[in-house]
Specification:
By secondary structure, this protein is of the alpha/beta class. It has two helices and 18 strands.
Length: 178
């Protein structure tokens, strides 16, 4: 019983150690009343490397992996950056509302059980457009100039200049105008 109580206190202590950062980033900075220039400064103070002021309200940044957002990129309302591992977003990207960029996953054992969370970095190149509610999964590299359709689930790398849609996301060629 004592060991379980010690472990509980240890886990709670770890959570409490990060509580001020979580409050700073995901409550104060993410608030709708926080001006964008102040939001960007608050993110930088918390260690998020952003070269843009265009991060909308309601975004959530979790994990301890470094987050880098390039110059001219726009991150719309309610996006989630799950940064157990590094997340790098290039320059001049458009990230639509409620996009999820996830770096955390679990290794699966042969018996179907899973181990602790592990992180795999996500990289998004320059001039990418990520549609509303798209999901970018751990370990994915999105090349420069890629367009990802709304609602797509990206499970593997996207080649530069490609257009991707679906679950899982597949490359497609847009229909040419008639």
């Amino acid at each position: 019983m004592k060991a379980a109580a010690r472990r509980l206190l240890q886990v709670c202590g770890q959570d409490l150690r990060w509580l001020p950062r979580e409050f700073w980033v995901n409550v104060l900075a993410a608030a709708a009343v926080t001006p964008r220039v102040v939001r960007a400064a608050m993110y930088r103070a918390a260690g998020i490397r952003t070269a843009t002021l265009n991060i909308s309200a309601g975004c959530t940044v979790t994990g301890r992996g470094p987050v880098t957002i390039g110059r001219g990129t726009f991150v719309n309302l309610g996006c989630t950056l799950d940064a157990l591992a590094p997340i790098t977003i290039g320059q001049d990207c458009a990230i639509a509302p409620e996009v999820l960029i996830c770096t955390s996953t679990h290794a699966l054992a042969a018996d179907g059980s899973f181990g602790p969370a592990v992180g795999r970095p996500v990289t998004i190149g320059d001039r990418c457009w990520i549609g509303a509610r798209a999901t970018i999964l751990p370990g994915v590299r999105v090349g420069d100039g890629v367009v990802i359709a709304a609602g797509a689930v990206v499970t593997r790398d996207c080649q530069p200049g490609g257009r991707y849609r679906g679950v899982p996301a597949e490359r497609y060629e847009p229909a040419s105008p008639a």
